[in-house]
Amino acid sequence: MSTVAPILLTPGPLTTSARTRQAMMVDWGSWDDSFNQLTASLCEQLLAIVNGADSHYCVPLQGSGTFAVEAAIGTLVPRDGNVLVLINGAYGKRLAKICEVLGRRFSTFETAEDQPTTAADVERLLLADPGITHVALIHCETSTGILNPLADIADVIARHGKRLIIDAMSSFGALAVDAQKVPFDALIAASGKCLEGVPGMGFVFTRKESLAAAAGNSHSLAMDLQDQHAYMARTGQWRFTPPTHVVAALHEALLQYNEEGGLPARHRRYADNCQTLLDGMALLGIRSFLPEAIQAPIIVTFHAPKDPRYQFKAFYERVKAKGFILYPGKLTQVETFRVGCIGHVNQAEMQAAVNAVAQVLEEMEVLEI
Ligand SMILES: *Cc1c(COP(=O)(O)O)cnc(C)c1O
């Protein structure tokens, strides 16, 4: 193993600061007051980011992001609920899969991977099926980096008196969502994405009344967010063993988030990273998959070079040797690769990554882009 850790240009786990990693050098007792205060402070800071302190609870959950998504659907959708799942990529498909596994009735609406779901689509679907109780949506679909028009879609759903569940995993902390303006029952995110913590816990913002009404919905003990919240409200503690080091790291990451200037500053840095990446790759002739208008500044999908001398695995290994970890594509139709814009990285590092890509293509004698 090399002594210099590579920079992760991936959508989580991602590059964290030394300060965040340092915060994990302490062992915390789960019963201890200072750890419980850490959890409480964490939830309070997270709620502030969505402006949800009065209207919503923040319920943390052990596990990766998907655990929190599954817990949110299992807890908030009653067993006789009916979910409309909006899909334009792999994470949308995962929402449908979760509904299927949990035995919740659901229907899907799928657009192409470079096509955002529109509010008009949702309006038409809700009118066509009045039995729909909930709509589930991916905010930034990480499989391409496409941004779905959340605010417009949320308006339509609220107007029809339906409930909205948002997977905002890859956007939370960088793209603003105000709980007082965007009505939702649940918004789900995790420690190891735009907040630049380490992976290991998810959290769900739930409308207070919706969570109170959700007792008994869950098919699962460990994934029951209503019970998780009730226990935490009563005792100040996590129900089962908490990911103590992950909590401490996220708390430290949030201090840095606020020092940097909160969401506007985080958004700006990622938008600058994204622009540097797009401009640099364009100079190499590498085309991005999405038009800029629907590209979120989170992760960018690029068309792979056409040259038969290009092979992702070899390309990946050579770029890694120069200090950068890229991400494979996740599209079935076209050959692509992805580069994340998030994590503790700035424009200089993005430019260095582009330079590494340029050198590697030259080494591999990839001529036809
Ligand atoms: C990362 C991510 C998830 C969660 O994935 P895990 O592998 O379970 O952490 C869910 N949805 C989206 C949009 C994501 O980007």
From TrEMBL:
One protein family per Pfam: Aminotran_5
Cofactor: pyridoxal 5'-phosphate
Swiss-Prot/TrEMBL keywords: Aminotransferase, Pyridoxal phosphate, Pyruvate, Transferase
Modified residues (N6-(pyridoxal phosphate)lysine): K193
Keyword Transferase: yes
Known catalytic reactions: (2-aminoethyl)phosphonate + pyruvate = phosphonoacetaldehyde + L-alanine
Keyword hit for Metal-binding: no
Enzyme Commission identifier(s): 2.6.1.37
Domain Aminotransferase class V: 45-302
Record family assignment: Belongs to the class-V pyridoxal-phosphate-dependent aminotransferase family. PhnW subfamily.
Its biological purpose: Involved in phosphonate degradation.
Subunit structure: Homodimer.
Protein name in UniProt: 2-aminoethylphosphonate--pyruvate transaminase
Species assigned in the record: Pseudomonas versuta
Gene name, Swiss-Prot/TrEMBL: phnW
